[in-house]
């Protein structure tokens, strides 16, 4: 009889040929999460096959639908749809019911742990030298509050979402993750620069120090991690793209510029941008270079603004909502 080595539980389970991995694991009193009841309407029973993938049955049609949507690698399988003709070793990927929230986020995001193209913008807001030391706390609260509120409004109107704030910086990603997304990010960057200039006119009337904005834009690959089950658009990018956009943005200080974009981003909009090459930096120890370009204008009409989305509902009935949503996705 085939044996299943179940991790992280470190238990050996025997499975009848007619049993799915999920049925065999549950029969052994291992609490394997299965939010939809094992109907392939969700992905919470997924396992990573560490050994013996050749002994697993081929994915069912129902599993193929979810695997395609969530971009599973071949060794990630739904336990409710998989049977084994020989010994296998698997690791449960959703440990308990608390992870249902994460499963919902992952389905809404459309992928689980894979690299995808992404358009990133990093912005740094600076004032006069030692801005946070020469202004009173109320001044900082007032000025930076106005600045970030306006920045958030502009970014969202061009299809962007500010993924994280840190001190006087923020990181934003733009939809769609294509050349059009790069164009939207650049248009947003130019409007941000104009907005800061106008804000400085107002601040001068109140005797506040002026602000400066430094922007970097990059188009590359990153892993998108859902970070808030209540907001499917809240995705944390991880990977080289984040490091590159940070280096592009910080190059503004050296080059005395406000808006720099990386070479991959420039390639997407070279026929629409007024730009010039300003330099390059090394990507790695093998001394591969990436050029950066200063953008001063875009030709043509700006893209249509995107109206703000309504707030997403809470999670009071999270399990029922989760299963219903997944069921609808399967039927489409």
Structure in a nutshell:
The protein has 332 residues and is α+β, with helices and mostly antiparallel strands. The protein is built from nine helices and 13 strands.
Structure in words:
The chain is of the alpha+beta class and 332 residues long. It folds into two domains: 93 residues, Roll (Ubiquitin-like (UB roll)), CATH 3.10.20; 184 residues, Alpha-Beta Plaits (2-Layer Sandwich), CATH 3.30.70. Strands 6, 7, 8, 9, 10, 11, 12 and 13 form an eight-stranded mixed β-sheet that branches. Strands 2-1-5-3-4 form a five-stranded mixed β-sheet, with helices on one face. The chain is elongated, with a radius of gyration of 25 Å.
Q: What percentage of the residues does DSSP assign to strands (E)?
A: 25-35%
Low-confidence runs: 310-320, 322-326, 328-332
Q: In the CATH hierarchy, what is the superfamily of the largest domain?
A: Nucleotide cyclase, GGDEF domain
CATH topology of the largest domain: Alpha-Beta Plaits
Q: CATH first level of the largest domain: which class?
A: Alpha Beta
CATH architecture of the largest domain: 2-Layer Sandwich
Class derived from helix and strand content: alpha+beta
Number of DSSP strand runs? 13
Oligomeric state, counting identical vs distinct chains: single chain
Head-to-tail CA distance between termini: 38 Å
> What is the alpha-carbon Rg in Å?
25 Å
**SSE pattern, N- to C-terminal:** EEHEHEEHEHHEEHEEHEHEEH
What global shape is seen? elongated
Q: Figure out the total of helices.
A: 9
Number of domains in the coordinates?
Answer: 2
Query: Mean pLDDT score, rounded?
Result: 82
Instruction: Let me know the largest β-sheet.
Output: 8 strands, mixed
Helical percent range? 25-40%
